[in-house]
Amino acid sequence: MTRLRNPSEAGRRYPVPLQPGLTYGPIASKRLGKSLGINLSGTKRKLCDYNCVYCFYGKTFAPPRAEEFPPVDSVLSAVSEALTSDVEADWLTFSGNGESTVHPDFPAIVRGVRGLVDEIRPGLRIALLTNASTVTDAKVTTSFDWIDFPILKLDAGDQTGFKRINRPLIPRIRVEELIERLREISAGKKLTLQSVLFDGDPTNVRGRAYRNWIKAVEYIKPDAVQLYSLDYQVGSISPIDVETLDRIASEVSGSGVQAITYIEERS
Ligand code: SF4
To answer: Whole-model pTM?
Structure first.
């Protein structure tokens, strides 16, 4: 079990403002060090297919529409500008104001970004923080081959918990299908999951919700799971204490999956 701490993220306010550009940072990321962000969701509102109960950007008011996303050229031009600047970074990370992989041109953007990195800053690594809602789309998962470190979210192990925690705005998304697909991916390549843990109503650290989540992790058999508690209270859910985080990490480690815990976190 590995525990990391990032003091720079302590005391975060909720909700946080949206990122003001198509690139941002670099930010001090506890997972990735100095990370330059790529925001495929534009700057007007959060564009995500989930409405997670803990989302630090607040509520997702409606599912994204294709015309709301920034065009490929604008994204690539912003990335090119950031890469040619004197900004220092260890990673270039797809994250930003929502879920990157729901951008309709995500595969083309990933290929374009890979080309720019190889040309302008070879050696800079590319990461993706994704909610994993699109892992059933082969066009999206094929794009992962161009990314050095995809990190995929799993907060619930059954549809009831998924609907209460991640609150998908697209009703056809079923967590059981995502879990199956994650298992297939894990069988063929390195896979890292990330899970936000919290207590209250809903919770994923007690009872059936917890048992089904840990069963799903064991079934998927990823290489590692990044585990972290919220660092703020929102509605009826609260951060968990270090003892609970350690207990869960021990159980994950006991199943043969590396558990990496963080004291404070954002999604
Ligand atoms: S997946 Fe991420 S951006 Fe989307 S609602 Fe959940 S926490 Fe917010």
So the answer is: 0.93
